[in-house]
Amino acid sequence: MLSVDVWRGTREGRFQAFQVPRRENQTVLDVVTEIQREQDPTLAYRFACRVGMCGSCAMVVNGRPRWTCRTRVSEVAHDGHLRLEPLRNFTVVKDLAVEMTQFFDKWHAARGYFEPGPQPATNFATVPPATAERQAADAGIECIGCGVCYSACDVVAWDENYLGPAALNRAWTLVNDVRDQENDARLKAVSGESGCVACHTHMSCTKFCPKAIAPTYAIAGLKRAVLRRALRGRA
Amino acid sequence: MTAALFVAQRLSAVVLALAVAVHLGTILYAVRGGLTAGDILGRTHGNIWLAGFYAAFVIAVAVHAPIGLRNIVREWTAWRGTTLDAVMGLFALVLLALGLRAVIAVFVA
Predict the structure, then answer these.
(1) Which residues 123-162 of A have a C-beta within 8 angstroms of B?
(2) A198 DSSP assignment
(3) pTM to 2 decimals?
(4) Which of A2, A9, A31, B8 has the highest Cβ tally under 10 A?
(5) What's the CA gap between A13 and A9, in Å, rounded?
(6) pLDDT per position as a tens digit, A71-91
(7) Reported ipTM
(8) Which of A161, A193, A194, A196 would you mutate first to test chain B, the one with the most B CBs within 10 A?
(9) Cα distances (Å, whole numbers) of residue B33 to B21, B24, B30, B39, B44
(10) Strand, coil or helix: what is A66?
(11) How far is C-alpha A165 from the geometric centre of its chain's CA atoms?
């Protein structure tokens, strides 16, 4: 049997203990689902795809943020114990479900959306895969928006306005999108008090990203771009 | 930290990296056989290059330290806004005044 402590409540709450049978190839999400379906239907959590694509099921597992659908119990519960908490740096809706609005609002604040400009190109752009910009964009484009990096980030914990690794990573992919027409505005958006320059390069985001993306390098790239922009007198 | 402060902090850090290395290297080289304060002042007195170097060092410190301290205060406390910026500006002026005073004192000693 697996002993599982699950956070119950919102900001205030307590851990509730459950016993769950060990099964072959069992994931942490399987454990949560088994608890919710077999033992306590009032347990709130979130998931959708179960295959590491949607970014819905992230939680803090034994103290570390993880995507639970792709985390096997055998990887993390070496002593037969799991401690499950909601992601840090988010408002807890209930139990293991968190409010993602602020997280995605920050993507918008970082202008983390494609800007074709007032006169979009009428034909497909050719972007050779070997170019430096394309490779920099490719390195961060697979983000699934799970919030693991945001949960792991110390700077977010210090400054609730900090845009966070995911939003800044998205901004960096767009800075390197040769089709985008609003990079000056984007660099201005990410260069404020709570933008990329606030990053301390602790690299927790890079350490815990389940997609092996390195937001730290994206943020470093933004810092260089912001520096160049400021040296051109556009602070 | 705004982009302007970020640039100021990074550029002053470049100056400091060189200045600290030269400063420490000079100390290690100069004191090999033992050195008194009198000996030091005897060599540094009236040296415009040394005074210029340490003036640049002091200016870099006066730019760099208040920006870093401002960041720390903003991260660890709720203090924000113009009072914080004013106090950090004052801190920069104090560092600048004390540092340049020492540079001038050594130059004219």
Answers:
(1) 155, 158-159
(2) G
(3) 0.89
(4) A31
(5) 4
(6) 999 999 989 999 999 999 999
(7) 0.77
(8) A193
(9) 20, 16, 8, 12, 17
(10) strand
(11) 7
